[in-house]
Amino acid sequence: MSAAATPAAVEGRPPAAGPDAVGEMVREATAWCAVHGLVVGDRADPRSGTVPGVGLVHAPFSLLPTHLPESRWRQACELAPIFNELVDHVSLDGDFLQDSLSKTKQVDDFTSRLLEIHRKMMEINKEENIRLGLHRSDYMLDSETNSLLQIELNTISASFPGLGSLVSELHRTLIDQYGHLFCLDSKRVPGNAASSQFAKALARAWDEFNVDRKTLSEVEAEGHVLPDGTLVVKGRTVSVVYFRAGYTPNDYPSEAEWAARLLLEQSSAVKCPSISYHLVGTKKIQQELARPNVLERFLENKEEITKIRKCFAGLWSLDDEEIVKSAIQKPELFVLKPQREGGGNNIYGIDVRETLIRLQKEGGDALAAYILMQRIFPKASLSNLVRGGVCHEALTISELGIYGAYLRNNDKVVMNEQSGYLMRTKVSSSDEGGVAAGFAVLDSLYLTDTSI
Amino acid sequence: MSAAATPAAVEGRPPAAGPDAVGEMVREATAWCAVHGLVVGDRADPRSGTVPGVGLVHAPFSLLPTHLPESRWRQACELAPIFNELVDHVSLDGDFLQDSLSKTKQVDDFTSRLLEIHRKMMEINKEENIRLGLHRSDYMLDSETNSLLQIELNTISASFPGLGSLVSELHRTLIDQYGHLFCLDSKRVPGNAASSQFAKALARAWDEFNVDRKTLSEVEAEGHVLPDGTLVVKGRTVSVVYFRAGYTPNDYPSEAEWAARLLLEQSSAVKCPSISYHLVGTKKIQQELARPNVLERFLENKEEITKIRKCFAGLWSLDDEEIVKSAIQKPELFVLKPQREGGGNNIYGIDVRETLIRLQKEGGDALAAYILMQRIFPKASLSNLVRGGVCHEALTISELGIYGAYLRNNDKVVMNEQSGYLMRTKVSSSDEGGVAAGFAVLDSLYLTDTSI
Of A91, A384, B185, B442, which has the highest C-beta tally within 10 A? Predict the structure, then answer.
């Protein structure tokens, strides 16, 4: 969860069931996790991560889904295909990407290397006829403005479509069995086919790639690109490249990884994402899109533009002196974010003021490494969070991710869909119940009629 | 796996795939286990077993299914409904059970307590109108006699219907992906719906119990039987009691557990199993059924009797002096088994001779605590066994379990079916490849046309 968030209003749960019922639900739920694959590697087990299937523990989860007004849910779903289209359109404007990120490039080596690959592809006029995007747009409900605000748009390695789908199923199962204790109805947990939708999109991309494909005589090699652009690895032609890594500097410990990334980009394989889709997901581009008249360059439909703009929180670069001044005066209304991707290290509260003053003194490009963002004040609610088989009640805030799948082959848009969702719930920083702040769990959502 | 077994002939695998392919298969397979619930508690993790969903590891499994001639498979499947019927018929003859187990009773406290409950039920003429049996009959292929021989019949807590079904699915998936490397076809792995079949039987038993049921006003209590026999626990009427424990002395650490077992038996709830079904599964009853003219008392159909008798290995009680003499002379042809249920502690080889001589000296009822069984010489084959993410090749022997579900309501036989299977494969005691003898994995089977 990337957003900085302070709970503003606490939403009460319906009358709680007794501790006996909760204990029984926790046992049922953790057993359900074990037999349905809602498991992760256990960090406490040193063997976990060395080989699959070893050192497993149920994924941390919320015992019941988090409430969300149905109107907000529909709003978030409607945005998914529009964001899919937006990413695609922005990705076609190489100069926009290069120009927008030119300052970031000077202070962030990682983005700089990505831009270098992107520039090389521009130079050779690299065509990407088949374009596959598997995105996730993350939102929070801001209680100050009563609005759904976008936190970030993930265009690479959007995580948890598999486990997220399972949590929805877990919650439906628990509500079918225990819902009467909480006056809940499992039909109000939206279906969530994120994993199968993403799998379908990958399979369709494979189809598109292979439909007109010439037969290639098998070439033995450890990975190279043939003159026609075909990517060959160990004698097999690669049709679709899915990045489950490559989005943080840690994934590129040596030049070999950068060479591999370039090799993939040079090939004719479908990349999910291509270097340009990847760059569209940077925070700086998100910020550029929020500037006046920028969305209009990439989308024609005015209604769609209005819908998208409505979910943008305030985003400013630090060359806007007025905003920097405001943030020094009222740091509690802002979040200071590093430009680099991958989350973490956001700066809040009094540290915003101190960091801004320091950066101003350093001068030069120091300011370009950060952006300022409107601070969101999400609704807080009491949740039962289960980790390691143990249930904790805590004050929590939630972030809703909506998956989107997009596939285009030349002029033909093969898929452009909302593809399931992910709810993540974490202990609010203002929780004083003894549960560690920041402790996050997988969650699903429960649609309410309540207007907010 | 309960049978004593020495490998006689080693069956070779088809041409092996390279180590690269095996390594890839192991990673695919262990990941498949994690996401499909083919997991167990890891004994190496102290938290495992304290709460569900924690300390999990993939269940140990065989990388590929074990070969079995299709004719033997069909033979084993055909036996399932006959054994179901046999258990039911034998259970109706309370005197037969009491008489057959009278000697066992004197030397085995556990069986003695079960018989006491059974006797009490006989005294009150307890009726069991709805009878539910979820059994598993275990077999090995004897290479000496080329026959399928029954190892034991489990009438209580027959284990692994859930994980067993998953292993068949795992093997089909692996063969679909890698079968060409081994000339295997996934269609030759029989479908295995053991878990859903057992669930269906339990649900149908619930239906039968409730179909003519009067409405009961809810009674708050921690567990008692109403005058009409209704079992009430925490205010809820119990329709079906499934025993996942209660088959070893360890499950009865105090008188409270025996009182609970009696309470359940006194109730009108459907018991799976009832005390009489439980007793029919004892080794002593298996031995009695193998005596001349005993099957004829319980089954009418001569063909069925012939089929059942064909799968009985030799079984003798130690009051047969001739057999004891033979076993002392040729101990390698016999296994000495304790009468008590629960497996383990079988005696083989030279120890058979020494134990028999000691028991003869002790005299009295010491001999009654054991039975002698024909030693089976199962085929051995090379298998890749995967445990803790690591693959070991070893010389193995396999045991085939066939599940059977039986449900009768008065005169109406609601279900009498073969309900899936379980293959268990263990490292043969004569394996010298360094893998611990006795190390066992879950397996499935691959039907061959080969006659044996």
Answer: A91
